[in-house]
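During the second year of the project, the team shifted from modelling isolated chains to modelling whole assemblies. The rationale, set out in the original proposal, was that interfaces cannot be judged from single-chain predictions alone. As a representative example for this report, we include one of the complexes processed in the last quarter. Its constituent sequences, exactly as entered into the pipeline, are reproduced here:
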Amino acid sequence: MINVTKTFLPTLEEYNSYVKRAWDKVWLTNRGELTLELEDKLKNHLAVNHIIITNNGTIPIQIALKLFGNGGEIITTPFSYVATSAAIVWENCKPVFVDIHPEYLTIDETKIEEAITSKTTAILATHVFGNPCHITAIESIASKYNLKVIYDAAHCFGVNYNNQSIFNYGDVSTCSFHATKIFHTGEGGALFCNDQNIYDKLYYSHNFGHNGPLDFHGLGINAKVSELQSAIGLAVFDHIDTIFSERKKVVEFYNSQLNFTNLKPLKIRENTEWNYSYYPVVFDSEATLLEIQKELQSENIFPRRYFYPSLNTINYIKGAKMPISESVASRILCLPLYVGLPTSDLKRITSIINKIIC
Amino acid sequence: MINVTKTFLPTLEEYNSYVKRAWDKVWLTNRGELTLELEDKLKNHLAVNHIIITNNGTIPIQIALKLFGNGGEIITTPFSYVATSAAIVWENCKPVFVDIHPEYLTIDETKIEEAITSKTTAILATHVFGNPCHITAIESIASKYNLKVIYDAAHCFGVNYNNQSIFNYGDVSTCSFHATKIFHTGEGGALFCNDQNIYDKLYYSHNFGHNGPLDFHGLGINAKVSELQSAIGLAVFDHIDTIFSERKKVVEFYNSQLNFTNLKPLKIRENTEWNYSYYPVVFDSEATLLEIQKELQSENIFPRRYFYPSLNTINYIKGAKMPISESVASRILCLPLYVGLPTSDLKRITSIINKIIC
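Output from the structure prediction step:
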């Protein structure tokens, strides 16, 4: 069976070489040495100012919204995983959707200003599939209206934009280290920021506001990652160059073999070093998508309708109509992309797709 | 160094015998087979109707409050770990404290009714140190005022009350499987309930509301536990009888050797099979506590001021005065209690305490 993704696993021996240290220290959580080491390695590798590893990729968005949302309206994208909108609603804010760019698939920065009201407190935009939003325009709007910017950078491990890590942009950026991600900790995620003051607030927020065992800085919750998760993160990180180069090969295969006459690939934004995180293709109609999906499934190949449905249409949200996002969401399919996907399978996938769309 | 607690670790080989299955399946999260097996084992062992294992012990309280709190006032105890109050505030509800019983240390059920207003939506009470609240009285009040009951049963693994698991009481009970707990998954926790309808809501809430990959039941968030955590849970569970019997020996040593003339132990509620989760002692004054703490520390023994401060006094909460809780919190110390704590160390601890208080 070929799924849209497959978790990259180091060997069990490699995992053990790290997790053994948790046994030696008899220490399984609460920012143990493996977590600190992983934070340090990622900080250096990504060249970011501040990082806090968390227990999943959603809690960082929740924490950022708790600090900056103030129960207000959050300008956001309808084209993202449900976590983006769910975090807004969960944190008692209101998602206000702005439609997406039809090719970059990120929030359409030219439509943000008209969505801002006196209740708007922040912009939460997703660098979807690792493709950067129009960061310059967004920062300029945020500055003009005194809004905070949170980037859901769940898909962005390893993305550089304008020669630096994409995590360096926004007041806060978040990432997911879910098992299906390029870099992962099984379940996990991270908070990134540049500002020391914001870092302090994020840090306290992720551990109950503790300032030592008996004192509290303020409100906080439990977003701590376990040492078991950090251990696999360290073991995965040892393979990070291979992971990128192998994924790049799959992407290049699709790029060279798919017939793009009736098929649109993701348009990567200028000045981006992309990370080969997903391979989305947009068909001319949902009917074509369903036909291809059916044909692939008959060969035990399971691409994924990422992201469907458009978040403004979800039952508990019911946002305004978002024609572009709804249209793209109905026609987009992410093709299998992972380390170890054999060329023979890639050939089967591309030939099935090419046969149907041509 | 002797800390208040020490994580129980199965051998690395025992852990590997479980975690290997995650490798074999290439499956690290999203309710994998280890998580399902652990849920099944715990469900049978505890004889409970429904269990959902989560990524920590706080998110279950948050989920229960999201379902039942409705942004209202939550009647709660000031004597608990900060997570209890933090979850209330985080979930946009208001904690309304009710003082505790001076001996059981649980919420004083006789004072609950006077704290109820038209805004009260739920009671969130902690079975502190595994000691049951006055469940009958609380259920009766809840029924009279149509309130939901959430039990923070973080400390309660293995506690039976009136011949059944304490997790069976309340609309929802929560537990912590933090590394410091009797049974643990490194970081982790669980939701328990009896009602199928509530279970469905809890279940969807803990996984983004997903009803299959493309449909949603409603609002949800990420509370999923990783297979790495469930693997250690399974390995710890294999030792559960030893864990209880070894902890019981430590408790019995303290019970038999401490001089209780000027020292109060926890009074366990009637009809309770307790779990030897903590060994709290209440001194006549904070000065005595500090003197004993200092003396123990000079011998590299670190008991813990659980729970201090009284939650109504925390800076971001500022609840009404709670004389009993504040007084107890200033005078209570949890003594070291874990599997493998040598009798020689126990003797040192009890003799230091007895010397000072007599």
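Chain A touches chain B through 60 residues (CB under 8 Å). The radius of gyration of chain A is 20 Å.
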